[in-house]
Amino acid sequence: MKQFHPHAAHTAERVAAALAPHVHGRVLELASGSGQQCCVFAARMPDVTWQPSELDAGALTSIEAYRADSGCANLLPPLALDVRRPWPVDHIDVVLAIRLLHVLAEIQCVFEGARAVGAASVIVIGPIAEMASPAPAMPAHLAAWTVPIRIPTRAEVTAHGFAITHEEALGDDVMLVLGPAARGSGTTSGSRAG
Ligand SMILES: C[S@@+](CC[C@H](N)C(=O)[O-])C[C@H]1O[C@@H](n2cnc3c(N)ncnc32)[C@H](O)[C@@H]1O
Fold this sequence. Notes:
- The protein has a single domain, classed as Rossmann fold.
- Helices cover 26% and strands 23% of the residues.
- The radius of gyration is 16 Å and the shape is globular.
- Helix 2 runs parallel beside helix 3.
- The structure holds S-adenosylmethionine.
- S-adenosylmethionine binds next to loops.
């Protein structure tokens, strides 16, 4: 059954436009949620092979239902993938995680997984704080969440061997494009746009 997430529906086109200059080849989207967004991404970026994935069984069913209706040949069937376990994929060019890191205690798994599949870049979108102290305020659109939410900081995100090559404000969220860190550096700051 198709799930409907108003926030995903509202932001999909804007996120697609922001992503387009930064993705190529084979993209693995972690935690694809309902599947609404990956259909928009695949339609807007027909030269990119889009691999959605999810942990949640209901979400996987929903992604497949949206995919079947999308008519997008570049949108692959969703993979059952828990980012904390070995990822069942071969080579991937770009790993994408939208609104995942703040609901994931083990964010290092995203970066370890990305390295294991040979990804050249990782794109994270979601609430990300400038610094740990003072504690970041909870964005209003996340206040109703019942799972524990822990907003990661830029320093935490870049502590895993990737550096920020581009960042962009996307409404309530921020998009960070991460590439390999220069040797001896884990926290290179990138350009800020928007
Ligand atoms: C806030 S939702 C975001 C969904 C989607 N990316 C979006 O932007 O609409 C977080 C998603 O992360 C998924 N998730 C949580 N823990 C996960 C894990 N360990 N591995 C893969 N997905 C996970 C949940 O099932 C949920 O769909």
